[in-house]
Amino acid sequence: MNAQQIADDADMIVAGYAYKNKGDYIEVIDLSDVNKISTIQNEVVSESVMSDEDDEVVLRYYLKNKEILEESLNA
Questions:
Q1: Which of 1, 12, 54, 73 could make an SS bond with 19 (beta carbons 3.0 to 4.6 A apart)?
Q2: Range of the domain at 18
Q3: pTM for this one?
Q4: What are phi and psi of 33, to 5 degrees?
C-alpha cells in the first residue's frame, strides 16, 4: 500500500500520521515512511517499528485527538 491509499483508508490523520481503528487496537502509520508502523492498545504503544520518540509523538497525538477518532467512527 502506498501513502495515498493509507491516507484514504485512515480514520484520522494528524501531523502526517494515519490512524486506523482495527477493533482491539489502533494502527498508526507514518505517511512519510509507510514502513514505520505503531500499534496503540489500551492507550499505550504495544508494538512498534518506530523510534521511541516517534512512539511518544503518535501516542500524544492519539490521546489528544481520540474523541475525534471515535466521532468519525460513529458518523
A1: 12
A2: 3-74
A3: 0.92
A4: -150, 90
